[in-house]
Amino acid sequence: MMSNTDPAERAARIRRMFGQIAPRYDLTNRLMTGSFDVRWRREAVHGLHLPREAHVLDLGCGTGDLTREVLRQSPTTHVVAADFTLPMLQLGQRRRFPRPPAWCAADALALPFSNGTFDAVVCAFLLRNVADLDQSLREMARVLKPGGQVAILETTRPTPHPLRPLRDVLMFKMIPWLGGVLTGQRDAYEYLAHSSATFLAAPELAQALVAAGFTEVRFTYKMMGTIAIHWAHT
Q: Quick one: 13 exposed, middle or buried, by C-beta within 10 A (0-12, 13-18, 19+)?
């Protein structure tokens, strides 16, 4: 697990960790979720109402899975795919997309975009890793146009569930083991499992969105209450 550090050191460790697991990150996600992560991205994008020729920011884009889904559902959309882990961006640039996105190295806490640039911001499995959640949400709100939308796919602190023992074995035993086998970085997947278990509960993230200036916040649970999709407007 990753101990508490100052924000700059924590960001450096996160960047290094994702750089190390980048080559097998997508494969590991598919195996860990039984490919349900593909369906969750589809649902997250489907919950948006994008205008024609919309401008969308995929923040913490990784290799571009969510970017691809945005473009699949809305082929006229202009997507900026942004991440602060260069190996992820480099892998993403080798992939094919329905429409080539613009790739950008960017920190979620200080986005290099003007106020009101985008019609929507989307992100998947980003927020539990940022050093300052509130600042990242404020930055999302800042770069959105009035009436803009956000879709957030994220792990959530687990809700009570009859299958909790099975869920705990999956999160704390199977995921680190599988991640270690596939990437050689078991510590990274132990961190990811524990960061999921200690991140905000879905209602708390909804409150954080409201505090950052978002309205019409709604969410839905997935995977035995360990995943949530949030949508909101500015």
A: middle
Question: pTM for this one?
Answer: 0.85
CA distance 144 to 213: 11
d(CA 62, CA 87): 9
Residue 85, Cβ neighbours under 10 Å: how many? Answer: 23
The one-letter code for the residue type at 131 is A
Which strands sit side by side in the sheet containing 215-222, from one edge to the other?
102-105, 78-83, 55-59, 118-124, 144-155, 227-233, 215-222
Q: How far apart are CA 185 and CA 65, in angstroms?
A: 22
Going by pLDDT thresholds of 50, 70 and 90, the confidence category of residue 166 is: low
CB 200 within 8 A of CB 156: yes
The helix/strand/coil state of 78 is strand
Cα–Cα nearest to 106, from 143, 153, 149: 143
Note the pLDDT tens digit of each residue in 24-58.
777 777 877 778 899 999 999 999 999 999 999 99
